[in-house]
Amino acid sequence: MAKSIDVSDLNIYYGDFLAVEGVNMTIKARSVTAFIGPSGCGKSTFLRSLNRMHEAIPGARVEGKVMVDGQSLYEPSIDPVAVRRQIGMVFQRPNPFPTMSIYENVLAGKRLNAKRMSKSDADALVERSLRGANLWTEVKDRLNKPGMSLSGGQQQRLCIARAIAVEPQVLLMDEPCSALDPISTAAIEDLIAELKSDYTIVIVTHNMQQAARVSDDTGFFNLKATGEPGHLVEFNPTNKMFTNPDEESTEAYISGRFG
Ligand SMILES: Nc1ncnc2c1ncn2[C@@H]1O[C@H](COP(=O)(O)OP(=O)(O)O)[C@@H](O)[C@H]1O
Ligand SMILES: [Mg+2]
Q1: Dist CA 21 CA 39 (whole Å)
Q2: Which domains does the chain show, CATH number per domain?
């Protein structure tokens, strides 16, 4: 199910503003790829270009190529809605639908996409998705309680359950732990390690220890100055990035010496 992603010469614009310039990278299937870099260097923008969410912003566009298992994502014949189904997204703040139960939250994405489902199919999908998100045992006796009644960390796992319920091939996560306490963060990190046997996972994190713990490959983005486009400085196996990076600026960023 998992897919590899090949990005070539990608430029990403907001209107006339070139936010990210000239990205080339290969994201491996069934692995975790982390993006690090200072605020404003285009990590979120780049992530959103990988499932065609970027263009939802008026005036936003890309140049270059994104290939998902050999299929070009930006061909005119490709339906962006279908792309977003295959390449799911988890956001910085857990965002369960406030009026929906835990059960309905898990099914929300599926209900948008699918025709009617039998009660037993829906039950099975809810259980499978919640198990997949390591949340089942904590919520199985209160599936009809509001999604908002859960703790922040549980809400984020609920959002992950909702994302995997539509059976995507890739999961994009934009700082999924930045609003969570350390225990919930550890639960999400454990979950990411499990999910990578089925999914291609791309995670933006401002926490370098987290990148080092969870990822197989790491990309370091930076920008020369405010107003300049962000660019990919270095992309390498995480081990190498954190012990012996190719670029001096990677070393400086990782060791806390900016510049
Ligand atoms: N919706 C938007 N409209 C215009 N510019 C944006 C928008 N979102 C982000 N940007 C700009 O794009 C650049 C990259 O931002 P972003 O991708 O959010 O960086 P990061 O996630 O690394 O902090 C910044 O200069 C930011 O101001
Ligand atoms: Mg961001």
Answers
A1: 16
A2: 5-254 (3.40.50.300)
